[in-house]
TrEMBL record:
The keyword Transmembrane applies. The keyword NAD does not apply. It comes from the Bacteria. Keywords: Cell membrane, Membrane, Transmembrane, Transmembrane helix. It is a multi-pass membrane protein. InterPro entries: Multi_antbiot-R_MarC. This is UPF0056 membrane protein. Its main location: membrane.
C-alpha cells in the first residue's frame, strides 16, 4: 500500500498546528460544546477528503481542466503551504486576513466554528483538496480509491485526537514545540510539492523530460 498520499495529507493538515486555534476559538465553551465541535470538525475533514477523492476528477472534467495543469497549480499551492509552515504558520492559514478574529466572534456568538474556519480553510483548504484529486487520478483500482477515502478517516481521527487532547498537547509541546513540528512537516511538504510540480510540468512539456 502506498502511504505517500497519507503522509502528504498529514503534513498539510497537521492538526497539531491547529491546536492553538482550536483552544482560542473554543474559549468559554462547555465540555459538551467542545465535544460537539470536535466531532463536527473531524467529520467535516473526512467529508472534504472523501468528496475530493470520489468527485474531484469529475469536477475537473466538467470545467475542462487537464490534470497536468491541476498538478502544477496544486503543487504551487503545496509549496506556498510549505512556506507558511516553514514560518511556523498553519499550512492553510492566511496570515494577512482576520480569520482568527472572525472565528472568535463566531464563538462568542455561539455559532459553530467547526466547519469554518477550523475545517475549511485551516485544516482542509485548497492544498489538501488538490493533493487528494492528484492522487485520485493515480488510483487505478477500486481498492486504491477506497484507500484514499480511508485516509480521510485517518485524518478525521487524527483531528479528533489532537483536538480532544488540545490542552495537554499545548502544555507539553508549548508554542516552541508546535512551531518545530510545523516547520518539520513544512520541509517534508516542500519536497513533495516539488515532486508533484515536476511530474505535471514533465507531462505538459515532454521536452523537459528529454535526455
Amino acid at each position: 500500500m502506498d502511504l505517500k498520499p497519507l503522509i502528504t495529507l498529514l503534513a498539510i493538515v497537521n492538526p497539531l498546528a491547529i491546536v492553538p486555534f482550536f483552544i482560542h476559538y473554543t474559549q468559554g465553551f462547555s465540555s459538551e460544546q467542545r465535544r460537539r465541535t470536535i466531532r463536527t470538525a473531524a467529520l467535516a475533514s473526512f467529508c472534504v477528503i472523501a468528496a475530493c477523492a470520489l468527485l474531484g476528477l469529475q469536477i475537473l472534467e466538467f470545467f475542462n481542466i487537464s490534470l497536468q495543469s491541476f498538478q502544477v497549480g496544486g503543487g504551487m499551492l503545496l509549496l506556498i503551504s510549505a512556506m507558511n509552515m516553514l514560518n511556523a504558520q498553519p499550512a492553510e492559514a492566511k496570515p494577512h486576513t482576520h480569520e482568527l478574529e472572525e472565528g472568535a466572534e463566531k464563538a462568542a456568538a455561539g455559532s459553530s466554528i467547526a466547519v469554518v474556519p477550523l475545517t475549511i480553510p485551516l485544516l482542509t483548504g485548497p492544498a489538501s483538496m488538490s493533493t487528494v484529486v492528484i492522487y485520485a487520478d493515480r488510483a487505478q483500482t477500486f481498492w486504491q480509491h477506497a484507500a484514499l477515502v480511508g485516509y480521510g478517516v485517518v485524518i478525521g481521527l487524527a483531528t479528533a485526537l489532537c483536538f480532544s487532547l488540545a490542552d495537554p498537547i499545548a502544555r507539553v509541546l508549548g508554542k516552541t514545540g508546535i512551531n518545530v513540528m510545523t516547520r518539520l512537516m513544512g520541509l517534508i511538504l516542500a519536497a513533495l510539492a516539488v515532486e508533484v510540480m515536476a511530474d505535471g510540468l514533465g507531462k505538459l512539456f515532454p521536452i523537459l523530460g528529454a535526455r
